[in-house]
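Page 37, continued from 36.
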């Protein structure tokens, strides 16, 4: 399996592949790969001649230095996992911060038509400028035909679609369903950092989302939100940061339900110092 750590090397490899008319899938990750990532890679392998998996913990999307420092980094293990999927058709790109940012580790400013100010944007200052910066840079380097992102970060997925639309980037964006542990917890690289008692407590997040989904059939968004907030107020281990029922297109909190619109419930919760997010499609 080819593993590149420098932009110039992978650019040369991509030029050679494009000359052979190979189709390219891209799966951008920050590593610490789990089944959710592997599902994206599997889908990408099904639909492309070659798949580039990028492994890069992007500093500009973190608003908290301790979260960045503690983010799991497991490159050797990640490469082994990918080798088991395909030695010939997967290319890994795991650059350094210096190689990507060339000494200027800063985000560019983006206008995502307000999507960036909802939910995560309210709690993670500059996060989506960081995501936009790295994802656009990866698109420029790799020039994929298709790129794959998980619906766990549904707001990120929506924003990346907006990035592609506004910057006329010729790439198809595919969103993939959330991959869950058997107990319902959404898979995340951060789960590896959960202490045992928090690991046991965390499936409560999805359990609550599923009940909220049922309640939303007959109750207003306000009533469902109140109910969810009460459940977390009674939970000794999990601290709710937000629960919002939002329109899937605008990501704005719903005021009055309409049969013509589609909604999703979004949640962010602290389990100790680990921030977990999840979401569920409603109606
Ligand atoms: O979802 C992630 O892992 C990251 O936000 C991404 C898309 C790889 C950009 O760093």
């Amino acid at each position: 399996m080819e593993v590149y750590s420098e932009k110039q090397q992978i650019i040369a490899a991509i030029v050679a592949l494009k000359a052979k008319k190979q189709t390219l899938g891209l799966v951008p990750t920050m590593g610490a790969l789990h089944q959710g990532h592997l599902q994206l890679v599997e889908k990408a392998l099904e639909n492309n001649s070659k798949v580039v998996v990028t492994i890069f913990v992007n500093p500009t999307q973190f608003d908290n230095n301790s979260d960045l420092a503690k983010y799991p980094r497991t490159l050797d293990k990640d490469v082994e996992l990918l080798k088991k999927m395909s030695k010939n058709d997967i290319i890994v790109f795991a650059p350094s911060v210096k190689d990507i940012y060339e000494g200027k580790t800063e985000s560019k400013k983006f206008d995502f038509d307000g999507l960036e100010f909802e939910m995560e944007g309210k709690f993670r200052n500059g996060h989506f400028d960081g995501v936009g910066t790295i994802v656009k840079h990866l698109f420029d380097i790799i020039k994929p035909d298709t790129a794959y992102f998980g619906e766990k970060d549904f707001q990120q997925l929506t924003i990346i679609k907006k990035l592609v639309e506004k910057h006329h980037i010729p790439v198809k964006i595919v969103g993939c369903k959330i991959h869950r542990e058997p107990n319902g917890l959404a898979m995340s690289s951060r789960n590896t950092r959960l202490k045992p008692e928090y690991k046991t407590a965390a499936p409560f997040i999805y359990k609550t989302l599923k009940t909220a989904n049922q309640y939303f059939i007959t109750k207003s968004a306000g009533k469902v939100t109140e109910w969810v907030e009460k459940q977390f107020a009674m939970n000794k281990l999990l601290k709710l940061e937000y629960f919002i029922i939002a329109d899937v297109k605008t990501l704005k909190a719903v005021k009055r339900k309409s049969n013509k619109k589609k909604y999703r419930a979004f949640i962010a919760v602290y389990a100790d110092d680990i921030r977990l997010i999840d979401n569920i499609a409603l109606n």
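The chain has a mean pLDDT of 97. Flag for discussion at group meeting. The radius of gyration is 19 Å.
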